[in-house]
Design goal:
Distance between the termini: 37 Å
Number of domains: 3
Number of strands: 7
Largest sheet: 7 strands, antiparallel
Oligomer: single chain
Shape: globular
Helix content: 25-40%
């Protein structure tokens, strides 16, 4: 089973463990224990699912909901005989979908995203990690990721830090998304210890503000540490949920000669590290 098939299956795996004995998921679950990258993805996916499940369980269901649906069924059954007999499953599916939408299940599409800027770029990146996104492809190497980037309308070479280019033996996950009409590209890198690094690239011209050359802005947002910087025509965010990893050490080749690494604040200091937004 390839990872893409496993992720498609595991997206429907319930976070309360109800599907643990279902043979449909057994091979995919086994693969999460063998592939650190897939295992980390599944852990994060289950965490998001649990948040959604908890929030949905807090939504008060109107006591009249069942009677309202049955009443609607009776009315339509008279107008179109046999319709609800043929589409009963679809009716309940629509009712369930309505509850999910009311409860905020469509976290990414319906939320109010902040305006385009370097200040809000890391927030949008962190929010996207908590949405129900799916990788477009998993390129086997940097060349494949660069080809995918060109297909998304980006020109030039993919500016990958050396430390990321060295951990592509598991492939490079690729996913695009839209931020107020501007395209942002996500590249996922799986490290040997299971850490997943999320690397965002967009055209810097799409942002109304700029960053001084070589400056890195660091913040923590919604369980992710983020580093934001600008290089040539691109704007970048590097994120990870592994707070034990100093992500700046992965980027020194990008700012070499532009800013002394020793001048950067230590992790945990308040200078230039934003407060955790919980």
């Amino acid at each position: 089973m390839i990872n893409k098939t496993a992720t498609q299956l595991l997206r429907s795996y319930r976070s309360d463990g109800s599907d643990a004995d279902d043979p449909v998921f057994q091979e995919a679950l086994k693969q999460t224990g063998q592939d650190p990258g897939l295992g980390q993805w599944f852990k994060e996916e289950q965490a998001v699912d649990e948040v959604i499940r908890t929030k949905l369980s807090e939504i008060p269901v109107p006591g009249s909901l069942r009677d309202d649906i049955l009443a609607m069924q009776a009315v339509h059954a008279k107008a179109t005989p046999g319709f609800f007999g043929r589409h009963r499953g679809g009716l309940w599916a629509m009712a369930a979908a309505l509850l999910v939408m009311v409860g905020g299940g469509m976290l990414w599409m319906n939320q109010q995203l902040p305006p385009l800027s370097f200040e809000t770029y890391p927030q949008v990146a962190a929010r996207f990690m908590q949405s129900k996104f799916e990788l477009d492809i998993v390129a086997k190497d940097i060349a494949g990721a660069e080809q995918w980037m060109r297909e998304q309308g980006f020109t030039g070479d993919l500016p990958i830090p050396t430390a990321l280019a060295d951990v592509t033996d598991r492939g490079v996950g690729c996913a695009p998304f839209d931020w107020h009409g501007e395209k942002v590209l996500l590249f996922c890198f799986w490290m040997d210890d299971g850490t997943v690094l999320h690397y965002y690239v967009m055209n810097a011209d799409a942002l109304p503000d700029t960053l001084p050359p070589g400056e890195m802005r660091m913040a923590r947002y919604r369980g992710y540490q983020t580093v934001t910087w600008q290089e040539d025509q691109f704007a970048f965010v590097l994120t990870t949920s592994n707070f034990d990893l100093d992500t700046r050490s992965l980027l020194l080749d990008r700012v070499a000669g532009l800013r002394t690494p020793a001048a950067l604040p230590p992790i945990g200091s308040t200078e230039r590290w934003g407060e955790e937004d919980v």
